[in-house]
Amino acid sequence: MEKQDMSLVFVGHVDHGKSTIIGRLLADTDSLPEGKLEQVKENCRRNSKPFEYAFLIDALKDEQAQGITIDAARVFFKTKKRNYIIIDAPGHIEFLKNMVTGASHAEAALLVIDASEGVKENSKRHGYLVSMLGIKQIAVLVNKMDLIGYDREKYEKIVEEYSEFLKNIQVTPKAFLPVSGFQGDNIAFPSKNMPWYNGPTVLEILDLFEPEKIPEDKPFRMPVQGVYKFTKSGDNRRIVAGTIETGKIKVGDEIIFYPSGKKTKVKTIEEFNKPPQTEKTAGQHCGFTLEEQIYVTRGEIATKNGEKKPYTSKKFKANLFWLGRDAMVKGKEYWLKLGTARVRCKIDKINMVLDASTLNRMEKNRIDRHDVAEVIIKTEKPIAFDLSHEIQQTSRFVIVDNYEISGGGIIVENIPDEQSGLREKVFLRNYKWIKSGISREERAEKYSQKSILLLITGKEGEGRKDIARSLERRLFNDGKFVYYLGIGNVIHGIDADIHNQEDPKIVNREEHVRRMAEVAHILLDSGMILIVTAIELNNNDLDIIKTVIDPDLIEVIWIGEEITTDIKPDLHIYDFENTEAAMNIIKSELQEKGIIFKPW
């Protein structure tokens, strides 16, 4: 019978003995390579320093013998019942990073407390962090009992204090264990020094943990890692690849990608050097081809039609644990990583800050190192996610500040943003859309261009229309499929019904922008380069347009020296001699981005 696999994490305050316990566990279960223990002891003797079992972890970092593999964060060893992966979290920033990004998903945690020092602030912070990340199975190891003379009373005071804290955060540990990693008490064998304790050893408690069930009964979720296309020998497959977090998928299933809302069916399930597969389930790497060639990108989440769909928004409420050197503050821009998605974000509101070691609530306008906070986060563009009490795997995120992972948390509530209603309409449109039999790639190859919406904006009187019309003529003369859409054509055509009755010049701006975007969506689907001019577009206008149209198909160009709205253009042309010069700058930009052919 094949052994079960289980991942565990050891966490605790610095110098409370995590590595010593792990080293002793390996030594007492004969899990070390032959002669390794003696080698480390001899090295200590030669260097005139006392031997510590923690040294075994360092000594084994590059070891690959006898089935033992140890790297900077993980230890692999076996019992008669299971294969274990022990995650040694040297600092909780590493633990947080690995847990939230899914690099190391622990099914159980062992919290280590030094008996001679007692419960420290970090002991409580680690307990809160483990709880927040959804680890249900926890055992507490009260280590270094030898340093307090195996005093039962002192041990029970620690148990009482820490139990009270864990109770306040709704955590019930499976057991408390009095141990000594250095002396080997209650690690692999019962201790003779503590006859008053008759509970399990560390080795026994590991085998008492229940393995986490593969979440294949939950809705299908697969964050898209990448889309790979093969061109050798006429192979035109496009494979959508990722790791299935929950649920399962089979050939013929109808798939919807979020946040785009695009749908298609699974044509084949691919696996390198293996015969064709018909089904994949949670925890497995997966690559599949599509019946219809739709454009999807890394960061989207693949879901199955008919199952509960994820939330899609630019706002959500989260419980966040901050570990950055600098406080997290409102107004500052950060990067948020959820699954394979990476998007800029800001704190929209700090609802409450909590000291994770005392559980005291504080009214603060910033989140300091080690604080836990309930916050409203706003992202630059919509992302797909689930709530932590529904699907943990797609509710966890990390925050990057100055190129370092500085915090992370879980999403607890969806908050509709300004475009949520419009987004639902777009999802329905995409779902009902009858696709052309000609793909975007086929059109791009035929026309030698990529479809793009060029939004040329700026203050009135800066020459936007002249530049747009000249650009249209130049691209047309070059053989491109291009069209200039004058705003007046939209206002007095499909927007005629939304004019203000008292003043026909006044229209509902948001609805006007939405309708213009829907017209643009059709023209872009035909493979067109579409040029649209508008006076002083702002971020709200752009949000509407990007909700209706794939943001990757939009290029915003501001004409004029001063940017007078809150928009961030892709290209700012503020210094040009004439219309011809501005047009040449835009054409060069299109060539640099591969939208039109660039001659050698």
Uncertain spans: 62-72
- The 3D shape can be described as elongated
Oligomer: single chain
| Percent of residues in β-strands | 25-35%
Looking at CATH, the homologous superfamily of the largest domain is P-loop containing nucleotide triphosphate hydrolases
- In the CATH scheme, what's the topology name of the largest domain? Rossmann fold
Q: What about the largest sheet?
A: 6 strands, mixed
By DSSP, the count of extended strands is 28
By secondary-structure content and strand pairing, the structural class works out as alpha/beta
Characterize the structure shown:
The protein is an alpha/beta fold. The protein folds into 4 domains: 4-208, P-loop containing nucleotide triphosphate hydrolases (Rossmann fold, 3-Layer(aba) Sandwich); 222-304, Elongation Factor Tu (Ef-tu), domain 3, CATH 2.40.30; 311-421, Translation factors (Elongation Factor Tu (Ef-tu), domain 3); 436-592, P-loop containing nucleotide triphosphate hydrolases (Rossmann fold). The strands form 6 sheets. Strands 2-3-1-4-5-6 form a 6-stranded mixed β-sheet, sandwiched between helices. It has a 6-stranded antiparallel β-barrel with strand order 7-8-13-11-10-14. A hairpin with a 3-residue loop joins β10 and β11. It starts with a strand and ends in an 8-residue tail after the last helix. The model is unreliable at 62-72 (pLDDT under 50).
Write the layout of secondary structure elements.
Layout: E1 4-12, H1 18-28, H2 36-46, H3 55-59, E2 74-78, E3 82-88, H4 92-101, E4 108-114, H5 121-132, E5 137-143, H6 152-168, E6 175-178, H7 202-208, E7 222-229, E8 238-243, E9 248-250, E10 254-258, E11 262-270, E12 279-281, E13 285-290, E14 301-304, E15 311-322, E16 328-329, E17 334-338, E18 341-355, E19 361-362, E20 366-367, E21 371-385, E22 396-401, E23 404-414, H8 420-432, H9 440-447, E24 452-458, H10 464-477, E25 482-485, H11 487-491, H12 509-525, E26 529-535, H13 539-548, E27 554-559, E28 571-573, H14 579-592
